[in-house]
Every structure is written in structure tokens, then in C-alpha cells.
Amino acid sequence: DSGVTQTPKHLITATGQRVTLRCSPRSGDLSVYWYQQSLDQGLQFLIQYYNGEERAKGNILERFSAQQFPDLHSELNLSSLELGDSALYFCASSVGLAAPYEQYFGPGTRLTVT
Amino acid sequence: AQSVTQLGSHVSVSEGALVLLRCNYSSSVPPYLFWYVQYPNQGLQLLLKYTSAATLVKGINGFEAEFKKSETSFHLTKPSAHMSDAAEYFCAVSDQGGSEKLVFGKGTKLTVNP
Predict the structure, then answer these.
(1) What is the pLDDT of residues A33-51, one digit of tens each?
(2) Does the beta carbon of B3 lie under 8 angstroms from any beta carbon of chain A?
(3) CB distance from A12 to chain B under 8 Å?
(4) Would you state the pLDDT for residue A99?
């Protein structure tokens, strides 16, 4: 158990819908990262927040957005969902701002868009 | 831009045999390097990391990796495979310059045969 929690574990929704994925980092960690894992793209970095502020952006679509709240939990919002958005979404947390601080991964949310 | 290449999407070994999983990186600056393991239906767990302190890095579960700058490699090894090592292994790179994101390889699925 990494100490990072993600809800829900599974999510099935239809195209065009909007969903929110939630992540609670390990106690004391200020950084939260979101990654997408799909069969064709592999593991891809989406976005990072540090203590409530956006710090880095990766291959995140404009239909996707995230935020980190004062209690440090984070939410990833996915809208106008397409079939290709079906993937595993991981949240990770670390104590510091950047490497070499280790990133601890949550169990993931499996999103299926039908 | 950083990139990671993992040679061999599938590796099969016998129980008790040497495990060798290959990773080559491309980075314009000295990198931080990581190996993560993903068991079925779970998140990623850090096995070990290279942060320039020592070229031979020991990790959990008997795994180790050697950083070879001349070969731009960071191969993962374990002298004797155990059935419980069956999983998918990911190599990742992060810039020492403070880049927050991890760039992952495509992963290598390890099968251990009895």
C-alpha cells in the first residue's frame, strides 16, 4: 500500500459525458501527478500540482483539467469523453517538487468509455 | 527531449534463472533513472532509483541496476528469478534539471516459468 488513494476504482460511462477522478496523496506529500496508461500510448504524464499550484503539463488534452485543493487532494476532470479516453488513470504523489524525490503511485482508476 | 527504450516487450525466464531487463535512455543532461514494477491490477511500485550517487543501485526484492553512461543504459538484473517476480517492469527517466515529469518506457512483461 503506497498511501495514495484513488476513487473510484472503476468507472464506466458513455461518450460525451464528464467524469471526475479523485486522488488523495500520501500524508505530507505536496506534489500530485496524474498519468494516463493506455495500450497504445503506454504511461504518459498529464499534469503536476505542487501545494495547490500547477507546476508542469504534459500531454494533457484541453478537454481534461485538474486542480489541487487546500487539503492537497486532487481531482482530474475529463469532459466530452471519447472512446479513446478509455485508460487507466494513475495519481502519484511525492514530498518534493521534482526528482529525485520518489513518486508513489495509487492503484489507479480504470475508465471505460462506451 | 528525454526518452526511454526498453528492449523486449516480453521476457520469459525459468525460476532460479538470471533476470535481465534492458533499458536505454536518451537525455541531454545527466538524468535520474527509475525502475518501477506493476503487478496485475495494481499501481506502480518503485524498485530502485539512480541519482548519481553510485552507478550500481540496489533495490527491493533483490533487484539491482547499473548505470552506464557510455552505453546510456540502466539495465535491471536479479540473480535468481522467483515466481513472484512475474509482473510488468517500467524504466523511467527524469532530468536532473528539475523537470517534474517522469518519461516511461513501454514496459517489459516478465514471465517466470516453474
Answers:
(1) 999 999 888 999 999 999 9
(2) no
(3) no
(4) 63
Instruction: Give Cβ neighbours of residue B112 (< 8 Å, ≥ 6 apart).
Output: B12, B13, B14, B15, B81, B82, B83, B85, B86
pLDDT band at A96 (very low <50, low <70, confident <90, very high): confident
Do the Cβ atoms of B86 and B99 come closer than 8 Å? Answer: no
User: At residue A68, what are phi and psi to the nearest 5 degrees?
Assistant: -125, 130
| Residues contacting B40, CB < 8 A, separation 6+ | B87
Task: Kindly report the nearest CA distance between residue A9 and chain B, in angstroms.
Answer: 10
Mean pLDDT in residue range B73-79: 97
Q: How far is A45 from chain B (nearest CA, A)?
A: 6
> What is the per-residue pLDDT for B90?
97
| Interfacial B residues in 23-82 facing A (CB < 8 Å) | 32, 34, 36, 42-46, 49, 51
What are the phi and psi torsion angles at A72 (to 5°)?
A: 80, -5
Instruction: Select from A88, A95, A105 the residue whose CB has the most chain B CBs within 10 Å, as the one to mutate to test that interface.
Output: A105
Residue A53 — very low, low, confident or very high, per pLDDT cuts 50/70/90? very high
A25 shares contact with chain B (CB less than 8 Å):
no
Is residue A112 predicted with pLDDT exceeding 90?
A: yes
